[in-house]
Amino acid sequence: MIVGDSPARDLLIVLAFLISAFLGLGLLARLENLLWKVSGELPASPPDDFQAIPGPDPAEAAQADSPRPASQPKKPVPPLPAQFRKNFKVPETQDDRPIEPLPRGDDLPPLNLLFGEQNSRPDERHINQIAGLIEKTLDEFGIPARVIGFRIGPTVTQFAVKPGFIKKPGSTEDDPHLLKVRVAQIAALQRDLALALSAQRLRIEAPVPGKSYVGIEVPNLRSSTVRLRSILESEQFNKVGPPLGLALGRDVS
Question: Which region among 47-56, 69-78, 227-236 has the lowest average model confidence (pLDDT)?
Answer without folding.
Answer: 47-56
